[in-house]
Write a structure and sequence with these properties.
There is one protein chain. With about 160 residues, the protein is mostly helical. The protein has five helices and three strands; from the N terminus they run E-E-E-H-H-H-H-H. Strands 1-2-3 form a three-stranded antiparallel sheet, with no helix packed on it. Helix 1 packs antiparallel against helix 3, helix 1 crosses helix 4 and helix 4 packs antiparallel against helix 5. The radius of gyration is 20 Å and the shape is elongated.
Length: about 160
């Protein structure tokens, strides 16, 4: 019996983590899809507020993120809101507090590779690194908090009402 990366070994009734490469790869792909689709939605919302034209530069360009201009601040805000959205994605699709940092680092590593390919050179903008470091930390910590809260919920053993003795 398997469920979200857990299996029961040697007749044990306690679920244990299993090595399931297909599940891990599909979870990575799902988190990438959540990352880019929610980022696209946040950027579209921000663009609609300031009547700006959407562009791939907002997602991949190093120069767009920043604090000096209004579009830069709004794009930065969209990235931060995206980190919060992806933390909820970790809760619903990864479900393990121990794996939140792994999946967060993987999502941001692939984003770094995508930016590197898009721009043709490694990122050197300090604001890009600052924004993505903060977003990585937010996504991992909030995702882990949400997952741990769910993991530590009390498991009801008896559905009968409690009686006071």
């Amino acid at each position: 019996m398997q469920s979200m990366g857990c299996c029961f070994r040697n007749g044990s009734t306690v679920p244990q983590l299993c090595w399931d490469p297909a599940l891990i790869i599909s979870q990575i792909m799902l988190m990438q899809a959540i990352y880019y689709s929610s980022l696209g939605l946040w950027l579209a919302l921000v663009d609609s507020l300031v009547q700006s034209n959407p562009s791939l530069d907002q997602i991949f360009s190093y120069e767009v993120l920043g604090f000096a201009t209004s579009p830069g601040r709004l794009s930065t805000m969209a990235f931060i809101l995206n980190a919060l959205t992806c933390a909820v994605g970790l809760l619903y699709f990864i479900r393990r507090g121990k794996q939140c940092l792994d999946f967060t680092a993987t999502v941001h590593f692939f984003h770094l590779l995508g930016c590197w390919i898009y721009n043709g050179y490694f990122p050197t903008a300090l604001t890009w690194w600052l924004v993505h470091t903060v977003c990585t930390a937010l996504m991992a910590v909030i995702g882990e908090y949400l997952c741990m809260r769910t993991e530590l919920k009390e498991i009801p053993l008896n559905s009968a009402p409690k009686s006071s003795v």
